[in-house]
């Protein structure tokens, strides 16, 4: 006799893992982070001939991802007993979880020629331990991406001289390198995005 037959109900949904069907696959967090890493690298190199389309991507897609992570932050910390997670759609929850994972990996995965032994887990790349810290880091990322969008970050600037900018570049660099398995649809979309980037960047190879 099963638990249900005995009169017990399962405390969690029987579905092992819900499938996220993105309304717009190009807004998938892994894809947005990968493309943002590419664009930030090109901006830093001063390799973009016409920056406006690239800035549009950062404004629409990158900031959109960060705003979704901000909205979904309630699910990450001590909110579950007070908050109905079903009120937050799966895409928003995915953005928050993805950003949290990247932030958690930053101290171990980020590198710098000025720090041959790597970054301290308690230093400038320390992972957030509270919702307030998580939101502060997301806000910093949003501000720095906007500074790139409006042209306030000079090409070839020494990132280590500007900790917020360094953290932003490293966030997308580490997010790009995480071994996230993409679906066939995401792989197809990534290829289409790279081809589009090559077109509006004047033939610059974005496979960096």
Structure commentary:
The chain has 208 residues and is mainly α. It has one domain (29-200). It has six helices and no strands. The protein has helices spanning 29-45, 51-71, 90-109, 131-149, 163-177, 184-200. The longest helix is centred in the N-terminal third of the chain and has 21 residues, at 51-71.
TL;DR?
The protein is mostly helical and 208 residues long.
**Radius of gyration using CA atoms only:** 19 Å
Kindly give the count of domains: 1
Counting helices, strands and paired strands, the structural category is mainly alpha
- The average pLDDT score comes to 81
List keywords for this structure.
6 helices; globular; disordered N terminus
Topology:
Blueprint: H1 29-45, H2 51-71, H3 90-109, H4 131-149, H5 163-177, H6 184-200
């Amino acid at each position: 006799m099963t638990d249900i037959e005995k009169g017990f109900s399962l405390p969690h949904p029987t579905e092992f893992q819900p499938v996220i069907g993105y309304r717009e696959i190009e807004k998938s967090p892994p894809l947005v982070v990968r493309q943002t890493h590419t664009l930030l690298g090109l901006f830093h190199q001063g390799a973009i001939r016409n920056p406006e389309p690239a800035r549009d991507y950062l404004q629409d897609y990158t900031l959109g991802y960060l705003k979704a992570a901000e909205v979904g932050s309630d699910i990450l910390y001590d909110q579950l007993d007070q908050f109905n997670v079903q009120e937050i759609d799966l895409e928003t929850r995915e953005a928050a979880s993805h950003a949290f994972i990247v932030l958690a990996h930053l101290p171990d995965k980020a590198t710098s020629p000025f720090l041959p032994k790597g970054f301290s887990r308690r230093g400038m790349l320390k992972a957030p331990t509270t919702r307030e810290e998580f939101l502060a880091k997301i806000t910093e990322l949003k501000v720095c991406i906007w500074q790139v969008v409006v042209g306030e970050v000079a090409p070839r600037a020494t990132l280590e001289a500007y900790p917020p900018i360094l953290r932003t570049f490293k966030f997308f660099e580490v997010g790009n390198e995480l071994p996230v398995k993409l679906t066939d649809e995401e792989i197809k979309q990534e290829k289409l995005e790279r081809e589009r980037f090559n077109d509006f960047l004047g033939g610059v190879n974005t496979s960096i």
